[in-house]
Specification:
- There is one protein chain.
- By secondary structure, the protein is mostly helical.
- The chain has one domain.
- Helix content is 49%, strand content 0%.
- It has four helices and no strands.
- The radius of gyration is 10 Å and the shape is globular.
Length: 61
């Protein structure tokens, strides 16, 4: 399953549990945050000043 920028952070974590380490390495501590259930990867990357393309590349590697 390919991870896309429109997927919710919580959805990514449920479908690919090893994504937690990748998200944390990028500085996204939202893996346990209630907002992760409503926030897309793109929104989370924007809030944290991250390059969404780099994040997606890492998550889909």
């Amino acid at each position: 399953m390919e991870i896309t920028k429109d997927m919710l952070v919580g959805e990514v974590i449920r479908s690919k549990p090893d994504a937690i380490d990748i998200l944390l390495n990028f500085g996204l501590g939202c893996v346990g945050c209630p907002a992760s259930q409503m926030e897309s990867l793109e929104e989370a990357a924007m809030v944290h000043g991250l390059d969404i393309d780099e994040l997606l590349k890492a998550l889909n590697a």
